[in-house]
Amino acid sequence: MQLFDTFERTAASQPNKPAFIYFSERTKKWDVFTYQQFADSTNRFLLGLQACSLTPNMSAAVMTPPSIEFFPFAFALLKFGIIPIILDPAVGLKKVGEILKESQPDIFIGNTLTHMLRKLFGWGRDSVKHNLSIANIESGKWKVPQSSSPYFPLSTSSPAAIIYTSGSTGLPKGAIYTQSNLAAQLELLKNTFHITPDEIDLPAFPLYALIDVLLGVTSVIPDVTFPVPGKTDAVKVINAIQQFNVTNMFASPVVLEI
Among residues 65, 106, 115, 113, which one has the least CA distance to residue 84? Predict the structure, then answer.
């Protein structure tokens, strides 16, 4: 199984299938982001990454809050061959600095707040060569020849991501995942939990939403701040489960107890 096979088949055969059903902060209503929209947005980000003079095998500290735009952007990083360094911001400012000193990212991708913190605490000052945001990559100012290839072929042994542990037992530890590692995990999840394309999942962690799209299923994202499990609004979650006939929910024990 190749990492993007199921996603690409779904986008081609069911372009109007919802990738995300989410509660929009802007409109205060439920909205839909289809597989076709997801694929189109991913390709725009690929062109933007290329126009920023980035190259495959660079690593990127991704310090931007989850949003609908974040997910196709993360896909674009993986397809382009840029290695995202994924860490939980809840580890604390000091540990973030230690992680970035250890991992030596070439790129820092953040929003206004995290770029301010980067400057204040000197995150990545010894390694970062490109400081970017999702907004400026998406802005459309990049001029890329239509004939140019938006990404490079990657081998299954290519690094796909560096994922850090939560740091609950000390300094967070980073593990390198290859394209084949992630593809094997998708296959394991699919077979262990008998996940079919008809599933409706409610992911309580952003990484699970990426897994959903790679498996070709629909994610329901309610108006809930899941990174703080103890503050989960049970009513909003239950309403979303009932309204959209959710069949799966991956969450921490604290969220499930609530």
Answer: 106
